[in-house]
């Protein structure tokens, strides 16, 4: 009897096409995901013919054992799309509703599925004859579905209506947002539509309103880094900055830092875009650029609220940078993010925004630099991500980053793979 297999925990060896053709794999819904001393390990679903073992032996001419595993049909289809990426010539409707082009139901199904898979983004990529749907999961793009162009036309209209975009505009980029809620889960969906050669592409960024309480302990950092964060949480003034690319876990780490502070004895407020975590005892405010209420306006207003600690979601412009540094120099502890790849680049970015080296030397405590790397389980398969974090004090801000050295230690200890390090850090 075949074992049950969770394909989300399976790391592909990229060998499927060496044993069976794309047409055979797609027709019979089988995936050769591993070959070792035991034989060829092959996933199948309920859609797979009952005599598949005989057919495989005929097609593969394989002399060793063939080990079959039961897998979820949808997960198997997704892995097949990823394995034979760019060569799929079939339509895989999400379910029966997509055949009827019910845009409301199709979008709901996609959002529910993306939520279940813990995806951060949904990409819709139109081709001449179909539209690829891909999810970004743990920082990696995963093929999910191929839908017909007619279904995409209806779905695109639905996205534009929800996001308050001009439905008739097809020549210019558009941005918008909407909220989606099912049961106890709420998503803030950021939508970007872009004209491309085959129509209009779209990306939906999924931001979750998270209710769980965070702590530094939940970040799974080294003892030294955890102690450093606890020390930062005790500071009464100064500017603490955090950098890293989009999706590198900056918000989670900073919210854990804020949540570790004494909310009974301090007044703590945040300016976010949007609010992702419900922080107990903290005054949280979401900015609204459409109404003229951005980070700068929020900082000015909150500094009249007798604050001790202020979290600024992002320093984007000269006014916000100036307001943040003034607050840090006048007895407040300010924590903020800056889009940059290293502590040194943060320093240069702030100089570009009009701050002086003297201001930074007086107010800046240091920079947290973070990435998220997929980690390996005992079977050598990827299972979630963990933060790779470095603390760079003001005195060390011009020195090279230590992230790559830390990552190499992870590889040596079997915590992640060299390929993952190269993917994230390029080293």
Explain this structure to me?
Helices cover 33% and strands 30% of the residues. It is α/β, with parallel strands linked by helices. It folds into three domains: 1-78, 2-Layer Sandwich (GMP Synthetase, Chain A, domain 3), CATH 3.30.300; 91-207, Beta-Lactamase; 216-425, P-loop containing nucleotide triphosphate hydrolases (Rossmann fold, 3-Layer(aba) Sandwich). Helix 6 (103-116) crosses helix 7 (149-162) and helix 10 packs parallel to helix 11. The radius of gyration is 25 Å and the shape is globular.
Summarize the structure.
With 427 residues, the protein is α/β, with parallel strands linked by helices. Helices cover 33% and strands 30% of the residues.
β-strand amount:
25-35%
| Rg, nearest Å | 25 Å
Domains (count): 3
Q: What is the name of the CATH class of the largest domain?
A: Alpha Beta
User: Count the strands?
Assistant: 17
What average pLDDT do the residues reach? 88
Q: What's the number of helices?
A: 15
Q: Looking at the chains present, what oligomeric state does this protein adopt?
A: single chain
Distance between the termini: 44 Å
**Spatial strand sequence of the major β-sheet:** 13-12-14-15-11-16-17
- What is the correct CATH architecture of the largest domain? 3-Layer(aba) Sandwich
Overall geometry comes to globular
Low-pLDDT stretches: 86-100
Largest sheet: 7 strands, mixed
Q: Which fold name is given in CATH as the topology of the largest domain?
A: Rossmann fold
Determine the structural class based on helices, strands and strand pairing: alpha/beta
**The CATH homology group name of the largest domain:** P-loop containing nucleotide triphosphate hydrolases
Helical coverage, percent range? 25-40%
